[in-house]
Amino acid sequence: MTEPLIDAHAHFLHAACGRSDWADVNAARLRAGARIGITCHVASVLGTYGFSSPTYLPSPRDVVTGNDAMLALCKSEGDLLRMLVTVNPNYTKHALDEIERCVTRGAVGIKLLASRRADDALLDPICERAAKHRLPILHHIWQHRRREWPNQEISDGADLARLARRHPGVTFILAHIGGGGDYQHTFAAIRDVRNIVADLSGSGVDRGMLDEAVGAFTSQRLLWGTDLTMETGLAKLRALENTGLSSAEDIRDIRWRNASRVFGLKPRSESSSPRAPRAGGRKPRAGRK
Amino acid sequence: MIDVNALIGPYPYRFLPHPDPEVLERVLEREGLSGAWVGHLPSAFYRDPGAGNAQLYTALAPHSAKLRPVPTIRPDWPDWEGTMRVAKDAGAAAVRAYPQHWQLGPADERMSALAIACGEARLALILTVRFEDLRQRHALDVAGDLQAAAVRSLARAGDVVRLVVTAAGREFIEEVHWGLTPDEQRRVVWDFSWVWGPPEDHLAKLFRTIGSERFVFGTQWPLRLTQNPRANLDLLPDDLRRKKLGDPEKIFD
Question: What's the pTM value of the predicted model, to 2 decimals?
Fold first, then answer.
């Protein structure tokens, strides 16, 4: 068996997203994933991606539409896909109900967009529910240090750190260090918050970013991922071997072992069991279909 | 294959590890690239790039077999024509210009004069759309991205003009390409260091619509990972994987 590779940050489109090429985009993700060697895409659907409500502020109806599409994809693709349930915390009861509905159908985590700033009190009930089910939360981080941006509530690493400190029993995944703005600010903000891990996805491929990330978090708090640009994911995967900071074991952590631990995914073979976390991580859970 | 978009020297807004020609040469070897056109990154921010050009020539001299200098020329600076002659004598592969950093507008005639002079000297003019993602820029970095209108204007300046536009995304490329006549389109090639691959497949779409021969290999080292454009090529759909890129050495043929 080849070395597992888990994409911790993927998205799929669906027929109600308003794009006639939605199936081509999904097929392209699977095509590129096969070529890269991705053995599991941990993915979410973001409502209708702006078609009938904003991508980062999805209406409850669009949240359900998107999650239904993701459930259907998981059913058709089997072990290759795992689902994060998307919720909008402005609708607390709906969000909690949606988590219950999708967890019983196999969701392995929660996806929070930019519907509310990361340290907002409305996120607390979501986090409490995550703790109850031992689900990680992938939180979209998008910052421009000097201004707001339309159609989303910006959140930076410091905002997420405040939330994570309120919920020490939950593992938070800071989304896309390569796509969330000033990653150097992010690294400084979350370095000491041990229940936050970071995913490497995003279109940014700055030289030095990976070295600084490994230096700030060690390999045990980094998850490999792609988000919207799989070529940058492949580039980072190849670059990890040239950072001079990552041993083969460290690279395995980043490729799949950390994700396996965080999402509670079943190792693909006996020889590929998760390495025990050195610090700040949770015990591995039993595999979940 | 050569890298048309490499640089040496530090960047004012963040630390860059080892932006030195010795390291660049090792990186090229690792990535299987035969050489690079190399600019001097600090010169983009100097009022007078002259000293930066001198540093560039000196730094690259021991590496001349693989690294060719690409000096920076400001067409609003006195005696820029003399700088052009020095560049030609120094074996420059091309010339870099940063109109957005110098606040030269899209239709500035001095930029057109530079583009024509470069063409007459059989030197490509390299333009840079951006150095960094908008979302992480330093508060002092207010130059903004190069405008597509500036590229269109230069492509229309004359038959001899040859432009290498780096760090553009799909929308920028399409806005320029489809706003030019076929003759004008042939004066412009693009690196794809900032073009998205799958799942959106922007690079594949551009290869199908504009043609792979309009694209050249560029990395924007030392700002970005050299592995990125190669990864983008490796993830093209099967029918596009063997498509030939443009050859920047034959840009005037």
Answer: 0.94
- Tens of pLDDT along B203-251? 999 999 999 999 999 999 999 999 999 999 999 999 999 999 999 999 9
Write the burial class of residue B14 (CB in 10 Å: 0-12 exposed, 13-18 middle, 19+ buried). buried
A142–B135 CB contact, under 8 Å: yes
Nearest residue to A37 (alpha-carbon basis) of A4, A1, A78? A4
Return d(Cα B188, Cα B186) in angstroms, integer.
5
DSSP A155: B
pLDDT at A285 (0 to 100): 34
Q: Are B129 and B143 in contact (CB under 8 A)?
A: no
Residue among B64, B33, B66, B69 nearest B54 (CA): B69
Q: What ipTM score was computed for the predicted complex, to two decimals?
A: 0.97
Give the best residue of A7, A73, A205 to mutate against chain B (max B CB count within 10 A). Answer: A205
- Residues of chain A with Cβ-Cβ distance to B223 below 8 Å are 206-207
Q: What is the pLDDT of residues B160-210, one digit of tens each?
A: 999 999 999 999 999 999 999 999 999 999 999 999 999 999 999 999 999
Count of pairs with CB atoms under 8 A, one residue in A, one in B = 99
Q: Which of B150, B99, B130, B95 is nearest to B13 (CA)?
A: B130
